[in-house]
Amino acid sequence: MQNRGMAHYTLLFFLIVCTLFSSCHNQKTKVVIEGDLHHGGNRMIRLARIEDAGLVMLDSCYMQNGHFEFNVVARTPEEGTILALPMLYQLIVNQDNSITTMAQSNEHLSVVADADNMIRSYHVLGGEEAMLMVTLDSALTVFILQTDSLWTCYQQAMENDSLRVRVEQDYNVLVEHHTAFLRQFIQAHPSNMASYIAFYQRYNRKKFFDEEKDFELLEALTDRLSQQYPDHPYMIRMQQKVENIKNLKYDTD
């Protein structure tokens, strides 16, 4: 009887240890993205991850009075590898209303936004990369508001050549200022994946950096991030781009 009792307690102890180990392991291979969307009601919201092959849908749910929560858990070693890296995630209310943030395992992001215009209203608490993404999007939102105002003036000045020229000059100044902001951002955060997003930030067809003209910045950023994340799919793609540009410049010379 004593042996049976000891066996029972040994088994119970083993199960408790396994449960605790599993719980700790899941915490280290999990990303939590939750939040509250004003005017979100009970609408559906979807979560996707941007991988090398494109957009991968991960989950969806119906909000409860604007509240949602996603738990992204690694179920395979491959998923664990991806989850451990700072990757881009999209929260999508509909095709024209979404935000892109960044997260990695063991991070818990808290999002607050207006469900009717997420990109212009959202804030995130949690991971460093996610908060840096907010900084980038907020700066871009200011740029867009200013250029939209100039575009209205431009349309009203179609018959006034001097006013049109002045509007174009003001637009170029805005572009220069925003490009300078992005450059300073990259220089201030050379080891953050958000700087990769900063280099490729654009508005409509306007690119703030050119891969060939700004090759020195691109190469320096790629070298720094590749050292920190040698197996990151984003960095592998960046390294390929850098090599292609180098080869193109070599052939041209």
Tell me what the structure shows.
- The structure is a single chain.
- The protein has 253 residues and is an alpha+beta fold.
- Helix content is 52%, strand content 25%.
- The protein contains seven helices and ten strands.
- The chain has helices spanning 2-28, 77-83, 128-156, 161-188, 194-199, 215-228, 233-252; strands at residues 30-38, 44-51, 54-62, 67-73, 87-94, 97-103, 107-114, 123-125, 202-203, 206-207.
- A four-stranded mixed sheet has the order 4-1-7-8. A four-stranded antiparallel sheet has the order 3-2-5-6.
- Helix 3 runs antiparallel to helix 4 (161-188) and helix 6 packs antiparallel against helix 7 (233-252).
- It is flat and about 60 Å long.
- The model is unreliable at 1-27 (pLDDT under 50).
Task: For the record, give the distance between the C-alpha atoms at the N and C termini, rounded to a whole number.
Answer: 87 Å
Oligomeric nature of the chains = single chain
Mean pLDDT: 87
Number of helices: 7
Radius of gyration: 24 Å
User: What global shape is seen?
Assistant: flat
Helix content: 40-55%
Written as H for each helix and E for each strand, in order along the chain, the element string is HEEEEHEEEEHHHEEHH
How much strand content do the residues show? 15-25%
**Main sheet characteristics:** 4 strands, mixed
Low-confidence runs (pLDDT<50, min 5 residues)? 1-27
Structural class: alpha+beta
Strand order of the largest sheet: 4-1-7-8
- Total beta-strand segments: 10
